[in-house]
């Protein structure tokens, strides 16, 4: 029994180590302070940085990431983009894909991030594939699931820190919702997503991604 036990302990230790490597989500009060200090973004400079830093390789020219490894960025809410870049830099996002972004944003300053967000946010948001609306979009009172529109807007267009969902890559939407559901993404302020995502079924997640995504 002994060797098995020590293996389990070693496994446990490693798992704890990995969990600890993830920086904790910032509370709302600290985000308020952080966002109040956000520099004004310069879109022209942001466009130049986007080209210089090779963002297009994974997110496509003009933020249109169709068939590329990164999510769609064109027309995403600037404040959300800015927050995500800070989250990657501070190590608040877990997983191998987040590690790619963490290395991409090791250097950029807050001014760089504000400029990138300003430029990307002003680009044309791509259309969704227009799959039929699944009932879960309107939430489920019995299971205490709020309607998506309460935070993401009537058309999934997003607002402030609530990202646009419409036009996002389908696979990325599934990945994001599964991460919230499994507790692998905890950078959402006040657990705004994680508190109910855990109740979504895999079928509902697929239907939501079909509806909002492309
Ligand atoms: C080598 C590929 C690669 C490069 C280069 C890259 N990204 Fe990313 N980016 C990704 C991947 C993959 C993700 C998804 C990460 C995850 O799942 O956590 C991502 C996620 C993001 C997100 C989060 C979007 C969302 O909806 O949550 C933003 C913002 C972003 N990248 C901006 C940029 C910018 C700006 C640059 C250039 C400075 C850049 N990326 C360069 C691969 C890349
Ligand atoms: C209480 C407000 C709230 C509700 C209701 C809500 N969301 Fe969110 N959602 C957020 C916030 C805030 C974020 C950004 C989290 C962060 O900062 O990382 C988010 C992020 C997401 C993301 C990640 C997007 C990306 O680019 O990484 C997806 C996908 C998403 N929500 C889908 C949904 C769906 C589908 C519903 C309805 C079932 C829904 N949300 C309902 C607040 C909400």
UniProtKB/TrEMBL annotation:
Subcellular location(s) per record: Periplasm
Binding sites annotated in the UniProt record for heme c 1: 55, 58-59, 101
UniProt keywords, alphabetically: Electron transport, Heme, Iron, Metal-binding, Periplasm, Transport
SUPFAM superfamilies with a match to the protein in the record: Cytochrome c
Listed name of the protein: C-type cytochrome
Organism: Methylococcus geothermalis
Pfam families linked: Cytochrom_C (PF00034)
Annotated InterPro entries: Cyt_c-like_dom, Cyt_c-like_dom_sf, Cytochrome_c4-like, Cytochrome_c_Oxidase_Subunit
